[in-house]
Amino acid sequence: MNKAVNPETQAIVVDEIFPHAPQVIWKALTSGDLIGRWLMAPSGFQPVVGNRFTFQTRPAGEWDGTIHCEVLEVVPHERLSYAWKGGHASNEGYGAKLETVVTFTLSQAETGTRLRLVHSGFVLPKNDTAYRKMSEGWKDVVRKLDVVAAEQASQKLN
Amino acid sequence: MTEAETITAVMRALADPTRRAVFERIVNCDEITVVELTRGSSVTQGAISQHLKSLKQAGLVCERPEGRNVFYRAEPRGLEPLADWMSHYGVFWRDRFANLRNLLKDIDP
């Protein structure tokens, strides 16, 4: 998809079929009012390459919670892509520095339109392995915390 | 507490191997009492109670008193501070796709 993506980064992919025509979905992706009704209310969005807009999200530490976006690609009824940047270098986890790209791709499916979202460019910090697998569930996370926990415990002893 | 302090509190609570074992047992069942936790453990009920107190303070477990018993269960949001951007957005986008599905139903019935 995005061939320039750094191999050390990872992407989130959500891929679903909607029983609607691509035109309808495209409208929901590119009308500021409609975006506000399913994603978040954008400020200053125009579906034009080079357009800069923002989303306001929950702040963390030195980051004010603003997501800075720039439209990178617009192919009506087919593809929309924008840069999605935020965070601050002083944060860890939620609110850490974030330089990513969000791409929506529409294609025909038997029962409607396939919408594929790729949110790419997540840098996985090398020292973050204990946290990283969070989404795999509780029991797993607890096991992976062992390493970090053991480190903390040994620090406490010293 | 700041984000970093919350993370430290959670990590600290789970750093103790005995406490972590207690937490794992709570995670693995729906609800459990101090007596039941003590039964399967090599430490005293008093020690288990202390560990439960720390886990509660770190937001990892919550309690439900019923009659003379107190039932403990894992707090699903307890490990959230440890989540990174990727797991945040993994949940975020799936949620938003559900919103989108509803919106499309509204505007294009």
Question: Would you write up a description of this structure?
Answer:
The complex is a heterodimer of chains A (158) and B (109). Chain A is an alpha+beta fold and 158 residues long. Chain A has four helices and six strands. Chain A has a six-stranded antiparallel β-sheet with strand order 1-6-5-4-3-2, with helices on one face. In chain A, β3 and β4 form a beta hairpin. In chain A, α1 (22-30) crosses α2 (32-38). With 109 residues, chain B is α+β, with helices and mostly antiparallel strands. Chain B has helices at residues 3-15, 17-27, 34-39, 45-57, 85-107, and strands at 32-33, 61-66, 69-74. A three-stranded antiparallel β-sheet of chain B has the order 1-3-2. In chain B, α1 runs antiparallel to α4 (45-57) and α2 crosses α4. The radius of gyration of chain B is 19 Å and the shape is elongated. The N and C termini of chain B lie far apart (46 Å). Classes of the chains: A alpha+beta (158), B alpha+beta (109). The A-B interface holds A 10, 12, 14, 16, 18, 20-21, 24-25, 27-28, 34, 37-39, 60-61, 87, 91-96, 98, 115, 117, 119, 122, 124-125, 128, 130-132, 134-135, 138-139, 141-142, 145-146, 148-150, 152-153, 156 and B 2-4, 7, 11-12, 14-17, 20, 23-24, 27-28, 74, 76, 79, 81-91, 93-94, 96-97, 99-104, 107-108.
In short, what is this structure?
The complex is a heterodimer of chains A (158) and B (109). With 158 residues, chain A is an alpha+beta fold.
Attribute tags:
heterodimer, A: 158 residues, alpha+beta, six-stranded antiparallel β-sheet, 6 strands, disordered N terminus, B: 109 residues, three-stranded antiparallel β-sheet, 5 helices
Secondary-structure blueprint of this entry?
The complex is a heterodimer of chains A (158) and B (109).
Chain A (H helix, E strand, L loop, with lengths): L8 E10 L3 H9 L1 H7 L13 E5 L9 E10 L3 E8 L11 E12 L2 E12 L5 H4 L5 H20 L1
Antiparallel strand pairs in A: 1-6, 2-3, 3-4, 4-5, 5-6
Chain B lengths: L2 H13 L1 H11 L4 E2 H6 L5 H13 L3 E6 L2 E6 L10 H23 L2
Helix pairs in contact in B: 1-4, 2-4
